[in-house]
Phosphoglycerate dehydrogenase (Tessaracoccus bendigoensis DSM 12906), 317 residues
Amino acid sequence: MKVLVPKAYRGKLPKIDDAEIVIIDQRVPVPKEHLDAEVLVAWGQPPEVLRDSAERLTKLRLVQAFLAGPDPVVAAGFAQEVPISSGVGLHDGPVAEHALALILALLRHLPLAVQNAERHVWDVKHAGSMKERADDGRVTTLDGANVTIWGYGSIGSTLAPHISLLGGNVTGAARTAGVRGGVTVVDDAGLADVLAETDVLVMILPTHPSTAKAMDAQRFAQLKEGAVLVNVGRGNTVDEKALVAALESGRLAGAAIDVTEVEPLPAGSPLWDLPNLLITPHIAGGRPQNADKLLAHNIAAVRAGGEVRNLVRVTGR
């Protein structure tokens, strides 16, 4: 069995009996000599390369995506009989760590500290998340803060205990209400009431028609005044015009985003010039953990007719 792994993946690789692991350049179509591959790892390939692979790799028995969101892989058009496995769970730790870093950067006013350092200003009096302000009751610490995680899945449940350890009160928001691991989770019907008491809103929503611009002007109006927002989900889940308006008006004290609607973020975007907005270039993930174990399990499952983990339901091409 031949397994194609993009050189963009730098993590561990499994040792599998009778399997040949071939490292390929993910930027170009698969070479002719490797069109007999039975397993393709999707990680870093441009859409056109994935589409080419779907057409030319006719002997595939498994497409293993290391991406948490397998949308580009599904859209490539692999045959219906070829199982596609997503990388759900592989990025829970790194994305949760990044979200926590962005939260603390806002609450401990690190962006302002960096701005002051660039101006050679030593100011021990700034007390806001992103700009100078008095003690007006807005959140400046996780201790006692109400933190809402919108898109409460595996990443959210990884992040929640870390917030709790620092004294934050965590509430989740998802399509289905309930209690998960001791965290109360509300659905859309209960979200407005929760937002009204939210000091820190963390968004980890996936791409879906129902989540497009989910954080719009109406939702910003429902959010507690002076709150901060962190988005490590998908850029199209936030209405960027509404985000700019909320930051410029001061209703939103600060925000940190790892994703934008268009990536790379265009040079002319007004987001670049907002002093109370921290931007990272979609780097929250990018370090899949235990991908070797998932790949090994799914190859064994394909060989033995077992259950493929993280199976994505696809419709044919």
About this structure: The mean pLDDT is 93.
